[in-house]
Amino acid sequence: MASLIEAQGLTKRFGTHAALDGASFKVESGRIVGLIGPNGAGKTTALKAILGLTRCEGRLSVLGLDPYRDRNALTERVSFIADVAVLPRWLRVSQAVEFVAGVHPRFRADRCHAFLERTSIRRDSRVKELSKGMITQLHLALVMAIDAQLLVLDEPTLGLDILSRKQFYDSLLSDYMDAEKTILVTTHQVEEIENILTDVIFIDRGRIALDLPMEEIPARYVQLLAPPDRAEAARALKPLSERQLLGRHVFLYEGADRQALAALGELRQPSIADLFVAKLKGAAA
Prior knowledge:
Elements: E1 5-14, E2 17-27, E3 32-36, H1 43-50, E4 57-62, H2 71-75, E5 78-81, H3 93-103, H4 109-116, H5 132-144, E6 150-154, H6 162-175, E7 182-186, H7 190-193, E8 199-204, E9 207-213, H8 217-220, E10 221-226, H9 231-235, E11 241-245, E12 248-254, H10 258-262, E13 266-268, H11 272-284
Parallel strand pairs: 3-7, 3-8, 5-6, 6-7
Antiparallel strand pairs: 1-2, 1-4, 8-9, 10-12, 10-13, 11-12
Helix pairs in contact: 4-5, 5-6
């Protein structure tokens, strides 16, 4: 079966700068994929290409469509929340629902209202009367009510407090996600979404540094906490990265002999954040 998103050699240049530099990756249906990279890594350009907002060199297929050429058809099957998404401050909640219902053929107003009823948002409230968290909930209600196969989230919880961020992702999982839908999300709060991701894609300087299902990470990568007197022996096993923590040396390895590592200290599964830093340091070396 064809991938829901398939990119081969995706390249986008702005003058001499390559925002995307031969990026290749796949996203399968029914997955929650984290697209993670530092500022300027190419995340936004990749999302714009996927949404048909910019033309790139290489090959890109989204839901079997060329996103730039077939953008009108694509918009009926994709929903999007951006970090800069705004609603007019004068707009009432009921008017926002009516507007989306009038312009999107796959929007279900009853589903939107059902979600809003579980919040403290009143239908007669104006956007200017809502908190940041409530505005994000309103955005989520509007896009979740669209029967879309792909939901793209670009820093969707930027500026929200930790409680609002947790409520956002809880709602996403309980009210939107199913086996037929796919979520592609970028965020700087990697630790908060690590437990909901099924796949992770690292991007840096326009290139893909890692594209892997989460379930394969424990078998491929391991972290070693070693005392100072065993640090040299640990370095001899060629780690991806090394740092110090509370008097111990923390090493991260790919495909290493775990029995040999276990003799040098404590083994742990690395977090996505630790793996991300190690892969990018390795790419820069």
